[in-house]
Design a protein that fits this description.
The structure is a single chain. This protein is of the alpha+beta class. The chain is built from six helices and five strands, in the order ααβββαααββα. Strands 3-2-1-5-4 form a five-stranded antiparallel sheet. A hairpin with a 2-residue loop joins strand 4 and strand 5. Helix 1 crosses helix 6. The two termini are 12 Å apart.
């Protein structure tokens, strides 16, 4: 075991293979595009809204569908059940995401140019932390919206958790929530980074038998 650990620690200083460098450099492209795309889409369906209402979550704000018209309509409905108004300013907590994505992109380019296995593993860990924190923050915000209801609202509802992924019935509304293009692109970047990090990590084990 001691010999294996010594070999593994020496392996961390090895340079990564050329095609890993190329893949990391190319992976920065979808990450950069993701910063401009929607992260999440929520769709509200009800008998009185046959075409539904849409809410889009970006890396820096929220936006209603139909040219922004849907957001005031959603807020009007939220008022009746005691939900706090959906204000783009409340989602400013997510404005760290573009900066974190930029930092990850720069780190990925650095690893691609001069990095070793240790730097690749560090990038994978940071990417994982970023993804978990961003999703956790988004879930926490949705939880607060559904659990801090005004008891004086015209319609009384029990506290609820809006769907994160999938479809859920909320009153007379069917709410669907799905990751959008930006999240899928970021997931692709994370998959590339972590996939190569795992491959470079297990490679010495196969060699040592």
């Amino acid at each position: 075991m001691r010999v294996w650990l010594s070999s593994f620690y020496r392996h961390l200083a090895d340079p990564i293979v050329p095609w890993t460098r190329i893949a990391l450099a190319l992976a920065v492209i979808p990450l950069a595009v993701a910063a401009t795309q929607k992260l999440w889409t929520l769709h509200f369906m009800a008998p009185q809204y046959p075409n539904g209402l849409d809410l889009y979550v970006y890396t820096y704000t929220i936006q209603g569908g139909n040219g922004g018209i849907d957001l005031p309509e959603i807020n009007t409905l939220n008022h009746y059940v005691g939900m706090r108004k959906l204000d783009p300013a409340d989602f400013a907590d997510l404005d760290f995401i573009p900066f974190a994505m930029g930092a990850l992109g720069l780190l990925a380019l650095r690893v691609a140019v001069i990095g070793d296995v240790r730097a690749l593993l560090d990038l994978a860990v940071l990417t994982g932390y970023f993804g978990l924190f961003a999703i956790g923050r988004f879930v926490y915000m949705l939880y607060n919206y559904g659990h801090n209801l005004d008891p004086r609202a015209p319609i009384t509802m029990q506290a609820f958790m809006p769907p994160i992924i999938g479809t859920k019935q909320m009153g007379n509304f069917t709410v669907s929530s799905w990751p959008a293009e930006g999240t899928l692109l970021m997931t692709g970047f994370a998959a590339i980074v972590m996939g190569f990090a795992i491959w470079h990590t297990v490679r010495p084990r196969h060699r040592s038998g």
